[in-house]
Each structure stands twice: as structure tokens, then as C-alpha cells.
Design a protein that fits this description.
It is built from ten helices and 18 strands. It is α+β, with helices and mostly antiparallel strands.
Amino acid sequence: MRRQRIFCLICLCIVMLAGCSGTGSQTSNRAEPNEAAVETKQTAEIFAMNTIMNLTVYGEEASQLLKEARALIQTYEERLSVNVETSDVAKLNRAGGQPVQVSEETYELIQKSIAISEQTEGIFDISIYPLVRAWGFTEEEYRVPSEEERQKIAGTVDYRQIRLEEDHTVVMPEQMQIDLGGIAKGYVSDKLMELFRDRGAKAAVVSLGGNVQTYGTKPDGTPFTVGITDPADGESMLGTIEVGQTAVITSGSYQRYFEKDGVRYHHIMDKKTGAPAESDLTSVTVLCEHGETADSIATAMFVMGKERAIAFEREHDDISCILIDKNGGIWTSEGIHLKLIKS
């Protein structure tokens, strides 16, 4: 499964970065960047937040910006990762109901997470972490918990019990634990875009474990190209979309899963059942100005299912989406042009 995820990511990045350079693209309307643009393009690949990240920056200070981007990612991982023992999140999960003073960034992200929970009627909920762990997805030690265990854990999942107090202090019930994994990479990509903007980058594109976000316009004047993975096999590319400055983030049942007794269990949990969501969707891609919004909403829309997800999209002008259902049907928001590689 890990090899599959890495292969999917490599496929996406090849299509995306080929579009950035103007060569090797799977579509024909690409122009070669001029010589000066090539000279100011710098790329980097790093491993952080338990995933492979690819960063490309255009500009005179591109090399220095990549160094600053690495440092920024490391800082956020140290503060936000549930797997870093000294992180704010780990401290909160060990607090046993006691108040914990966290960094401004962690406080801000928890605040944003609660707002998304309200917007999605509680479908997105950072306190779902104990359920994800019970199914073995945190340590890749997979198991199917009993119905009794699932319901007991589900009873502790409720974002409304998180209290945000003064001086960046957070208080949670004794049995509650959180994980910001469903929004953190989108938040970090937003912060990277702010860095590139403030430091004068001409353009940039990042893929944080497949979470793609772009800034500015390419030196050759052509759009950025992002590949959409085919959820039917989780490896090949279904199609591509051309985008300007935006976040493009996908949540799908093919990304992380295990099989037991002939049944496939994916990682996207429904807190009402304490089990993987029984959605009629296999993939949700959300396009939005803000990475943190696209990241969290993609997960929530998957749990909603197709009909409710479409209704949600129509109620929110700030997002667009591509929905792929279990029958291979594709629904796209108005204005989204998915160029199919597979017919």
C-alpha cells in the first residue's frame, strides 16, 4: 500500500511539474519557457509530515526561498504532528483534561478546524483520531475493532467539547485526542504560498503528499497542470486539469486502506458509525483559494456521499470539485474542465 501511494504521488508530480516546465506534458498546448525562466527555477524534494513533498519555485531568490520553505515545513511539523512527542498536539493528547498553552499557529489551526466542523455539520472533526488509531491506520497495524469498541470510542468524538481560551490555551475532555492530519498539509501549503508571495517569488507549485497548491503564473504564460489519479486502480492518471493560483486537494478511498477477509477498509472515518465511511464516492478533489479549506472539505465531502456533496458545493461559492463515484461516474463543478486520459 505504501508503494502504491508513493507511485501515485510520483505520477501526479510528473504531470504537474511537466506542465510547469512546458516539456513532457500529456497535452499539446504547452510552450517552452524562455531561457531566463529556466535559470530561475529551483526544485526540491523532501520527506516531512510522513509524506514526500515536492516544491518548485520561480524567481531570482528561488534557491534561498526553498531553504526557507524547508525550515517552515519543519517548524510546522514540530508543532502540529501527532507523531512528534514534543508537538503541541501530542502535549494536548497527553494532558488528561488539563489546559495546555500552544503556539499561535496551533491555536489558529484548531480554531479553523472547529469552524470547518461547524460548516460541515460535524462531519469533519479533528477529535476522530482515536477511531483512526483503533483501526490501525496510525501505526499501520491494521485491525477491525468490535462494534462495542467502535461505539465506545465514537462517544468521545465531539469537536464541540474543545475549549479555546485566552493566551493560546486549549482545553479538551480527559478522554479526547485530536489529529490535525486532515487539515495540516493544506494549512502548511497556505503558509508556503504566503512565504513565496512576501519574498517576491514569480511563481511556485508545491505537492505535499499529493496536496497541490500553486502561486503566481508560470514564466511562459501557460497554466499549471495537475493530474487527477484514477481511483479505480490508484496508480494511473484519469485526467488533467489546468489551473491558475489555487489549491487542488484530493481525498479518496484508494489512498490508504487494508483488506481483511476479502473486505477493503479505507482510512476515512464516519464518526457516526465508528467505521470507514460507506460512501458512494471513491474520490473527491476540491479546488479552493485556501489549502486548509480544500484539505478538510475534501474529506468531509467524501463522507457526505455524492448527492449531499453536490448540494454542499452549490451552497459554497468558494469551492469547486471533481467527484468520482463507485461506478466510474464523474461530476465536475461548472468551469472545471477535466481532460480525460482514460475514456
